[in-house]
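[retry 2/3] Putative HNH nuclease YajD: previous attempt timed out, resubmitting with same input.
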Amino acid sequence: MPSKKLAFINGRPQLVDANARVRSEADRQYNRVRNEQQSDYLKFYHSNEWKQLRDQILIRDNSLCQRCGLQASLVDHIVPSEDDWEDRTNADNLQALCRDCHYWKTRRETTKRKKGQHRAMKITVIVGYPASGKSTYVKRHQGQHDLVYDYDHIMTALTGLPLHQGNIDANDYVQLIYELILRKLKAEQSFDHVWLVMTYPDEKLESLLASRDVEHILIDTDRDTCMQRLSKQGRDVSQLIKAMNKLDEMKSENKFAKFKKIKN
Ligand SMILES: [Zn+2]
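[retry 2/3] Putative HNH nuclease YajD: success.
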């Protein structure tokens, strides 16, 4: 007997031959949207605006593939234009690539997009005083296929310094990583759960991820407890008090209305 697989046809589960090709509704939906956008899409790639931009980027990148260093033959959108239409003319989102590297990048993107359709990626923003227990909360709840942005851990990774130390010049680089992550998240569904750990809420995040379903958590450990923990860890509290004050100020301005408050 030929092997069978489970497929969804018009939304109903059915057993079909293992080698049958079933186009899921999600694919059809994707194609429909794509066809509607197709005319704008083609218009854009035939426009003088795009041709000029493409030449500029090739000059900027010395006509070298930004992945492998061989001769570049085209200009690629780092975040695909179909995922982020507004960013299609942003030079920071463009790079010269060779044909091979572009082929593999596009394949990875297509696979990711297909996987993403079956995934309901959750995004959780976690804020709170330093030493309130944010990282601990994430560790307790994170799964096997998650992405965690945690300022302190990235600082440690970039500088090789112990946790909660760092240097002021590396701060910009941690910030760059954060912004890249936000822009990529806007267009993707790759993970089960994304955790963004920070001291206080970030407005840039709110506007970039406005279209996404974002959960907000405030780890509401009281200030005295956090201070005790910080001094036990031997940390320099003078810098951290500023961050705590800012958080208090935001609390008094009622900036945490949509945050779920968790004691830790
Ligand atoms: Zn290449």
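[retry 2/3] Putative HNH nuclease YajD: The beta strands are 4-9, 12-17, 74-77, 94-97, 122-127, 146-150, 193-197, 214-219, 260-262.
[retry 2/3] clearing retry counter.
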